[in-house]
Amino acid sequence: MKSSLQIVSLAVGFLGCVTAFISLHSHWKESSDFGNVIVTSNIFENLWMSCAEDSTGIYDCWYFQSLLAMSGHVQASRALMIASIVLGTFGLVATLVGMQCSKIGGDNYILKGRTAALGGIFFILQGLCTMIAVSWYAFNITQEFFDPLYPGTKFELGQGLYIGWCSATLALLGGTCLLCSCSVTTKEKKLSYAYRGPTRGTAYTTSVTTTTPHPYDRNAYV
């Protein structure tokens, strides 16, 4: 039971890491056509670059020149997403080492269980970093969109945000399953220590009894 749960957790955590990497290279926001009669170009942006597409389908992309010139939520989202990928990588390595069916790390199952639990914590931290980064970025998009006094271009949520939400959900689910597998292992150990059957030596000592005749017993006078 615990081995299959750990395998499922590893697969879900791996999908969370892959989708987090995909979300970095997807569009996090795109220009809105709401209220515009004539649309000459569309603008797509993520944490690293901005792309513009004209009406003929030709588009051009350029990377952001200065990190310090960007807004604060973009800088924070960058840092959180990089931390998310690093934590997800640590979670994958720790889970591979701590799995019961894995031969990596020897046969010390107590140490392997703690390593698997550490991998689950890494996955949960990855999911939290991704969730905070994506939700914070989406909050700023919606705040600018519904602000009637905002003078700049209004954007809508891009596909990278939805991929990021899926990545955060998968990472949190994988980490929770790993911690649950470690709790199952702990319960099984407690049950095994609680029940101890009779040993061979105690069985013989309790079954064999010796009696010494009393000197004034009835058989002594026969």
UniProtKB/TrEMBL annotation:
<dbReference type="GO" id="GO:0005886">
    <property type="term" value="C:plasma membrane"/>
</dbReference>
<comment type="similarity">
    <text>Belongs to the claudin family.</text>
</comment>
<feature type="transmembrane region" description="Helical">
    <location>
        <begin position="76"/>
        <end position="97"/>
    </location>
</feature>
<dbReference type="InterPro" id="IPR006187">
    <property type="entry name" value="Claudin"/>
</dbReference>
<protein>
    <recommendedName>
        <fullName>Claudin</fullName>
    </recommendedName>
</protein>
<dbReference type="InterPro" id="IPR004031">
    <property type="entry name" value="PMP22/EMP/MP20/Claudin"/>
</dbReference>
<dbReference type="InterPro" id="IPR017974">
    <property type="entry name" value="Claudin_CS"/>
</dbReference>
<dbReference type="Pfam" id="PF00822">
    <property type="entry name" value="PMP22_Claudin"/>
</dbReference>
<keyword id="KW-0965">Cell junction</keyword>
<keyword id="KW-1133">Transmembrane helix</keyword>
<keyword id="KW-1003">Cell membrane</keyword>
<keyword id="KW-0472">Membrane</keyword>
<comment type="function">
    <text>Claudins function as major constituents of the tight junction complexes that regulate the permeability of epithelia.</text>
</comment>
<feature type="transmembrane region" description="Helical">
    <location>
        <begin position="117"/>
        <end position="139"/>
    </location>
</feature>
<feature type="transmembrane region" description="Helical">
    <location>
        <begin position="159"/>
        <end position="180"/>
    </location>
</feature>
<dbReference type="GO" id="GO:0005923">
    <property type="term" value="C:bicellular tight junction"/>
</dbReference>
<keyword id="KW-0812">Transmembrane</keyword>
<dbReference type="GO" id="GO:0005198">
    <property type="term" value="F:structural molecule activity"/>
</dbReference>
<keyword id="KW-0796">Tight junction</keyword>
